[in-house]
Write a structure and sequence with these properties.
Layout (H helix, E strand, L loop, with lengths): L1 H13 L5 E6 L2 E6 L13 E6 L25 E6 L17 H7 L4 E4 L2 H8 L11 E3 L19 E6 L11 H8 L6 E6 L19 H6 L2 H4 L4 E4 L5 H9 L3 E4 L8 H8 L4 E4 L14 E3 L1 E5 L9 E5 L1 H13 L1 H18 L2 H14 L13
Parallel strand pairs: 1-3, 3-4, 4-5, 5-6, 7-8, 7-10, 8-9, 10-11, 11-12
Antiparallel strand pairs: 1-2, 13-14
Helix pairs in contact: 1-11, 4-9
Length: 378
């Protein structure tokens, strides 16, 4: 979530926002202090802190949540905002010592929630015990990488399918190679590139390993399949230029996720002009439809995850996935046209500048009603 906090601040700075904002993500703090003659405490009606709060359950070090070092207690009044992605039909239940999302929101006196998609907002609205009023749950979409542009891909000898991200059960990485080999039993004029995240930690959620040789990839990428020569696995860190080149040299993006609040890699890929095969559920429905992508059928099933209570998510239809891969390969002109429609739509409607403007509008024109007496340091 660090990238979200950074982008919020960078985009607000470009707008020369005359407010005090502190974005927190984990142990990182990103400050915006564009107020003229800024002094503590600043002479403002409200001061804002946006803290990234995950509902996806803890990592090895606990939940992705910062519950300390809020804005200095000398400030006259602080509006605390939680930036909350939601991946399933439920928010995660955490350990007894750390509490859960609902408890944290209440204990930290959060008065507003930013969430990236209407899917996320709809899930949060199902919680009657959420201490934040429904009117103060705001949809602030994530933005597209500002360096991405539409690329009209020339016809190449090999048709390239691409997936970028972390090999994770939630992201559906566990059956991408299987589906590809079913769609193309023998090597044709195609190839599959999976760009994984470099090593993070071993023994991640549901036993996956975010590293080279991780269990999700190893299960599918057998020695026999390695000999095919058309499946490329990349686990090294790439700089931005190298990553963009992956997008620009691919022909179709694969996003068979089971859930997710937005999926930044998917929106970036589509913004570059890549047609996308994507699960027709969760946060990606904010920008994916049958006109600009290839929505995949699914079935809603229990998550059965350790950190979720009664959560459900989508199980993509693997046969439909195979069918769509064949269709895109056999209809490249149609796919390129969808990619152009997707790029135009995303670059027009989902920029970080637009997200910052929505944040600024909320913070300056729709200040939540806060009783300053609730804050003993005011």
């Amino acid at each position: 979530m660090d990238i979200i906090a950074k982008k919020y601040i960078e985009s607000l700075e470009k707008l020369k926002a005359d407010i005090y904002v502190n974005c927190k993500s984990g142990d990182e703090d990103y400050y915006l202090r564009n107020t003229e003659n800024f002094k503590l405490p600043p002479k403002l009606d409200f001061n804002f802190e946006i803290s990234t709060v995950s509902t996806s359950g803890p990592s090895n070090d606990g939940p992705h949540y910062s519950n300390s070092n809020w804005l200095p207690k000398t400030l006259p009044s602080t509006v605390r905002i939680a930036c909350t992605p939601v991946d399933t039909t439920s928010v995660a239940q955490w350990s007894p010592t750390l509490g859960n999302y609902i408890t944290q929101i209440k204990n930290e006196r959060v008065t507003m929630i930013f969430t990236p998609s209407n899917f996320c907002r709809d899930v949060l609205l199902t919680y009657d015990n959420l201490s934040v009023s429904k009117d103060n749950i705001k949809v602030i979409p994530f933005g597209i990488n500002e360096n991405i542009k539409y690329y009209n891909r020339p016809k190449k000898k090999k048709f390239t399918f691409l997936n970028v991200g972390v090999s994770h059960y939630r992201k559906g990485t566990d059956f991408i190679i299987d589906a590809y080999c079913t769609a193309f039993p023998k090597p044709e004029n195609t190839r599959l590139i999976i760009k994984d995240h470099p090593p993070m930690y071993d023994g991640g959620w549901q036993g996956s390993k975010y590293s080279k040789g991780n269990s999700i990839i190893d299960t599918q990428l057998t020695e026999e399949r390695k000999k095919r020569g058309d499946i490329i696995y990349i686990a090294d860190m790439l700089d931005e230029k190298e990553l963009l080149n992956l997008y620009y040299n691919a022909d179709c993006y694969l996003s068979p996720h089971r859930g997710g609040s937005w999926e930044l890699n998917t929106s970036d890929a589509m913004a570059s002009g890549l047609p996308c095969i994507v699960t027709d559920w969760a946060g990606t429905t904010e920008y994916c439809n049958s006109e600009n992508s290839y929505p995949m059928r699914y079935e809603i099933v229990p998550v059965n995850g350790k950190w979720y209570a009664d959560a459900r998510w989508a199980e993509p239809d693997k046969y439909h996935f195979v069918e769509l891969m064949r269709h895109v390969y056999e209809h490249p002109k149609e796919a390129r046209e969808k990619g152009k429609i997707a790029s135009d739509f995303l670059l027009k409607n989902f920029t970080w500048e637009q997200s910052a403007k929505k944040i600024l509008d909320v913070l300056t024109n729709h200040k939540p009603k806060v009783n300053v007496q609730e804050f003993p340091w005011a």
